[in-house]
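Holo prediction. Input below; ligand is cytidine-5'-diphosphate.
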Amino acid sequence: PEAAARDGKRSNFFSEQEAWEEQQIRKSRLHFGSDDGGRAGGGYELVLEGVVDFVKSTVQAGAEPDGEMDELAEAIDAKVTLQRELQDERKNLPVYKFKDDLLKAIDKYQVLIIVGETGSGKTTQIPQYLHEAGYTAKGKKIACTQPRRVAAMSVAARVAQEMGVKLGHEVGYSIRFEDCTSDKTVIKYMTDGMLLREFLGEPDLASYSVVMVDEAHERTLSTDILFGLVKDIARFRPDVKLLISSATLNAEKFSDFFDEAPIFKIPGRRYKVDIHYTTAPEADYIAAAVVTVLQLHVTQPAGDILLFLTGQEEIETVEEMLKQKMRTFGGKMAELVICPIYANLPTELQAKIFEPTPEGSRKVVVATNIAETSLTIDGIKYVIDPGFCKLKSYNPRTGMESLRVEPISKASADQRAGRSGRTGSGKCFRLFTEYNFRNDLDDDTVPEIQRSNLANVVLRLKALGINDLVSFDFMDPPASEALLKALEELFALGALNSRGELTKTGRRMAEFPLDPMLSKAIVASEKYKCSEEVVTIAAMLSAGNAVFYRPKDKLVHADTARQAFHAGNVGDHVALLNVYNAWKESGYSSQWCRGNFVQPRTMKRARDVRDQLEALLERVEIEHCSGVGDLGAITKAVTAGYFRNAARRQKDGSYRAVKSRQTVFVHPSSGMAEVTPSWVVYHELVLTTKEYMRQVTELKPEWLLEIAPHYYQRRDIDGHEPKKMAKGKGPAPAPL
Ligand code: CDP
Ligand code: MG
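Structure of the complex:
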């Protein structure tokens, strides 16, 4: 310290107080974004934080401070330059010119429909404008809903960056099982489903001054329900502002629904897009897509590529294929930076798609529908569109929902094409024929509410006290058949009584952010004294399908490791429990995960989910109890939720769903694939080449009568399958 006192400059650096003063001085010469009157969130929090970290680390490292001082200055300058650039970018967005008009319109009207091309700045800018204009005064918040988790997270991150604040402070996001907000949060991005849940705790959304239902054109199930609910609160809360924003033209429909609300159009800029079709239909669009990417890469001038696929598996396959091709071609081609993006992509990897493409290389973003309108990636000049997406479809007769790969609509195809013409003229390569486009594609995608199992929605609406579903204000009402089916299902689960009112079980179920069947299994675990186990299973089922992985060079090891969890043919549910418990035993070690070919990411997520479910157990007063080793109890609790998913083996080795009579198969990844017990209960059906049951556990048929006597009769379990009736066996012929 004495030496420091002698050397003014050194002491200046080593004392934090003085470092702060240094920052203040620097700050004073660094005014940026002054157009905003300094109200845009201050903008310095991150700059300062960087400096403090830097000072601390330098002090700890005992580094030579003289040179470090320059580095410090550089670090600050870099951050400031970034901020300045960001603020310039904000001003270049189409919405910026309309900021004042927009604020005036919002001030004047309670409900406003906002329409603007994707990328015009609706999602990232409007909440900031509202914040600057004082809508977050008096502790009120701005909600902005997104149909997709990834969009909510990445947009929040971007806005936090633009405002120079830490994500989770002034700007945060809330998605299922992940709340990144704090007391400070005033701009809250969230999935539409999360805002729906907030109605449970705060039916008038009193803490919000503005609710922006964004990406309204997507018409997700939750967005459609939100429409009805927010329209209602607008009536009795004159102080709340409602913004419905959409990327597409069909705004009149929104306006009609919201009592002729005015439409604010943000004129977009859209450059010319050349559309190319294939001359003949492509049998294998994955292979065709890979070839097209490489062709473009070799023949086309600079510009990034956006390729649309239907889901994670396809994306990973294509990523692998492209990497391999690039390896084969070695240095003969410019570098290709492959950026996948899909809903379950880990957060750390999401940021990569927004990073600028390195000089001399080309980026190819391989995305699901998420890049159609929810996310805008700058620099895209070429779009490759195979013309498919994964869509939920629902069969009201069987009550089964499944995800299917379906052709997209014309509206979707045009949106996708438009992604290439945002910053200059672009090209779109459709991997289907023009004839296909004109004659086979529907004009618009059917709203999700008309192709979904509604049990979850009905349960939530009932929990909000909305009993009369027939007169609920739907923009496009679901088929009454589907509503009826949902009521039946909830009745069968014991969530509703015969008058259609919520029961105590139903009230408890509604607290869990899970499918009603899974919530029911948890609620039932109280009775079977195994809530610990069932909550773990529920968490594992919710954490994603990728629990195990199989590296190509270690298939045998991976399979052996996996089989160990299935020892004793306990079934897939208990195997998941075994995995979790073994991981817990290891002290939640990632080393353990590697050794057992288990995805550490999935496990971490399962742990998070589990913590939250456990907290909810407390809230609904379900006792924590462990039925150590009692597999029967655990299977019964699972069956209490999933009794509808009971299937029986047939002679040919396939299974038949007991009630729906559908022919189904055990998924090859299941631990039961070789065991094939006569009766099983399954978690879900996935349709690939066949209808496969995923997560399968053996069941005793009598349990169905014990657990769901209102749903199964003896004849359901006795009635022998097509088997020719042996004499003396089988049901007696009915007396005439
Ligand atoms: O909502 P809208 O489609 O009108 O536009 P936006 O999502 O607000 O995007 C405006 C701009 O912000 C885009 O052009 C992107 O350059 C940028 N952005 C970004 O860099 N990172 C994000 N996660 C989201 C947007
Ligand atoms: Mg948007």
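Residues 93, 116, 118-125, 154-155, 158, 354, 376, 378 surround cytidine-5'-diphosphate (ligand 1) (CB under 6 Å). That is the main takeaway for now.
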